[in-house]
Amino acid sequence: MTSQTYTFRIQRNMPGQVGTVQSHWQEYKVEAEPNTTILTLLETIKGGQDGTLTFRQSCRSAICGSCAINIGGRTRLACKTHVGAVAKDGVVEISPQKNQPVLRDLAIDIRPFFSRVHGIKPYLQDGPERAGKVTSTAYDQVNHVTQCIMCGCCYSECTMAEVNPKFIGPAALAKAFRFVSDPREGLKTERLQDLASPNGIWSCTRCTLCVDVCPKEVAPMEAIVKLRTRGLNKGINTSAGAKHALAFHTDIKQTGQLNEFTLMMRTLGIVGSLMETGMAIHLAKKGKIPSPFPHSVTGVDELRRMYESLERSPIDVETKAKEAVPE
Question: 15-69, pLDDT tens digit by residue?
Fold first, then answer.
C-alpha cells in the first residue's frame, strides 16, 4: 500500500484563567499508509515532533475507550480509525470530545460523564420485583448493552447534552436499561420512575447520532426508547414527554393527523400552556398558529385497522442475540 503525507490539524487547548481554556489550531505533517490508525500517528507526532501534545490512550484495541476524540467532525476511537478513511484532501482535523470540559489539548475531564453513570445507580438492588429465573431473552437485553465501553462517543455527539448539560445522556441511560432489563433487579418500577424525571429518558430528541458513532453498536437510543415503552406499560405517564407521546398516538390513531392546536395543552396542561403564552404570541405574529379544526384525512379507516392489527400482534422489538454458529 502506497504511503503519502497527511496533514494533521489538531486543536491545541491550554488551561487559562480559572474556568477558561485557550485554544488554537496547529498543523503537523506525517508520512503514513492509509490503513495506519490515527492513534499510531498521534504517537508518531508526539514522539518525533511535539512531546507536549496531550491525549489519552491505553489498550490500543478498542476495548478501554480512552482514545475517543473528535476526528473529521465525528467522535471516534483513534485506535480504530484509519487515516485514509477520514482524511479529506490529505487533511485530518482533530479536536477533543464535545460536551465535556477540556483539561489540555485532546484530553477531557471524564468526571462529569461518569457522575451521570453513577447517578443511575449502576448496580443491582434488592426488592419485590426481583425474579429468581433468568431467561435467554432477558440475558440478550442485558448482554447487548454491556458491550458499552464508556468511551463517551455518544455523549460527545448528543445534541440534547449540547443544549442541556443536565441531561443524563445516552451512555448512562443505556446502562440504566441494562438494570431495568435484568430479572435480578428488585426495583425496576422505581428505576423507571426516576428515569422519567426531567433530564431523563423523555429529554432525548432521538437524533440517532449516538447510534451512528457508537463503536460497539450498543445503539443507546434504542435502549432509551425501550425504557420509555417499559415506563408507559407500567403506567408511568405523568411527565410532559410521556403525555406528548400519548397525544401523538391518540391523534394519529383517531384522525390520521396531529392536532397541533391542542397538543401543547395536552402536553403541558393549562398552567404550563399559559407559561408559553409569549411563544404563542410570537407564533401568531408569524402566522404559525395551527387551525383548531384540522382538515379531514382520507384512509383513516385503513390506518385504524393497522393500529388494531399491531395491538393484537405487537412487533417484538426486544434485542435478540445473533445465533452462534459453530466454526
Answer: 888 778 999 999 999 999 999 999 999 999 999 999 999 999 999 999 999 999 9
- What confidence tens digit (pLDDT) does each residue in 111-130 have? 999 999 999 999 999 999 99
Q: What angle do CA 163, 210, 235 make, to 5 degrees?
A: 80
Entry field: residues in the chain: 327
Grid coordinates of 217: 453498536
CB atoms within 10 A of CB 40: 15
Q: What residues contact residue 51 under an 8 Å CB cut-off, 6+ apart?
A: none
Type of residue found at 235: G
Beta-carbon contacts of 121 under 8 Å, excluding residues fewer than 6 positions away, are: 179, 191
Q: Which helix (H) or strand (E) holds 284?
A: helix 277-285
Distance, in Å, from the CA atom of 213 to the CA atom of 230, rounded to the nearest integer, reads 25
Q: Which amino acid is at 308?
A: E
**Angle between the N-to-C axes of helices 240-255 and 300-312, in degrees from 0 to 180, rounded to the nearest 10:** 120
Q: What are phi and psi of 75, to 5 degrees?
A: -80, 125
CA 153 to the chain's CA centroid = 9
Q: Which helix (H) or strand (E) holds 22?
A: strand 21-32
| Percent helix, strand and coil across the chain, each to the nearest 5 | 40, 15, 45
- Spatial CB neighbours of 253, under 8 Å, sequence gap ≥ 6: 303, 304, 307
Q: Is the separation of the CB atoms in 304 and 312 below 8 Å?
A: no
Beta bridge partners, 122, equal none
Q: What is the largest CA-CA distance in the chain?
A: 70
Q: What number of CA atoms fall less than 13 Å from residue 92's CA on the CB side? A: 30
Query: Residue 32's beta-bridge partner residues?
Result: 4
Q: Rounded to two decimals, what is the model's pTM?
A: 0.88
Helix (H, G, I), strand (E, B) or coil at 300: helix
